[in-house]
Structures are given as C-alpha cells and as structure tokens.
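REQUEST FORM: STRUCTURE PREDICTION
Request ID: SP-0412
Submitted by: Lab K.M.
Chain count: 1
Length (residues): 193
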Amino acid sequence: MEKGDLFLAVLQHISSNLSRKELEDMKFLCKMKIGKRKLNEIEQGIDLFVCLMQQNLLSMSNTEFLISMLKSLKREDLIQELASCVENKPGPGEQLAPQVEAQLEIAFDTLCDNVGRDWKRLVRKLGISQADIDKIMYAHPHDLKEQFFQSLLLWKKSSGKEAHVSSIQKALRDCNLNLTADILEEKLEVMLL
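STATUS: Completed
RESULT:
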C-alpha cells in the first residue's frame, strides 16, 4: 500500500473509532476553522477530515491540528496510530545491513542506559524536531527510557540507509557526552572481536 493510501486508511480507521460524543467534541473544536453550515452537515469523522483537508489543515505532512484534537479527547491510541503512519519508514530497498543493525541495537541500548536527562539535546543534534520529541513524550508520558528509545527509532527510520553508529558517536561528542561515547566505542570493539 502506498504511503498516501495508508494515510487515508488510518484516517478512515480513526473515524470508525470515534464515538458520537467525540465527533461532536471535534466539530466544536473546529468552529473557528470550518463554517457552521458545513459543520452541521458532518455526520462522520471522515467527513470532518475531508473538510480539514480542503482547508489545508490536514495532510500527511500536517497532522498537528488533528493530533491536538485527539489529545483533547485523550485518545492516545489514535495519536499513536497516526504517528506510526506518518513517520518515515524505510522502503523495501532501504533495509540496513545486518552488521549495521546489530551496531545500532548495541548503540541504542548503551544510550538508553547511559544518557539520562540529556537525551533530548542528543536527539535534536541527530536532527529530530521538537514537534516529534513532544509527540513521543506525549505518547509515553512516564517512561524516560522509552521516550528516548522511540526518538532513536524515529531517527533511524528517517535516516534510512544513512543511519550509522558514527553519526551517534559524533552527536555524543558534540553534546560533550564523552563518557557515553567511550562506553559505546568499547562495546562496539567487543562486538567486533
């Protein structure tokens, strides 16, 4: 399934999982964005999403407004589904070599065990946006390690074939996280023995 088709399928799934009250609440949140007459005609979530698309308030690259509405409904499950659809996943021809995968797995474990509160600074250095960090933090509000791990996975997916441990090591050094960089180097050396 192509990415655009997948996005529409996820919107359809979100629509079918909204209760009548949730749909009414979402329509209320759109009062300043969509005319009253159009809002009154909306009977399903999918109708609302079509209106939002027509108003340029919803697209595959612009899901902020929909996410904010789902947050107000406390529907983290639907936010997670939308986020996993929108994230850049490597295509079939973009699989990483097994050796690189193994190195990244060691790197991720090492980072999650050693970086701690500096993780946001590190993932920003890797190119993850603040908006993506906020989404991940919202999806995993009480689990620092999981927030960090999901950010690293997002970096890996968005980097595709360019995801290498050397990028992580450089980012660690740039953030003055030299001890963690040294620990990671040692673990990688052991792996190569």
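NOTES: Residues 3-86 form a domain with the Death Domain, Fas fold (CATH 1.10.533.10).
Reviewed by: T.R.
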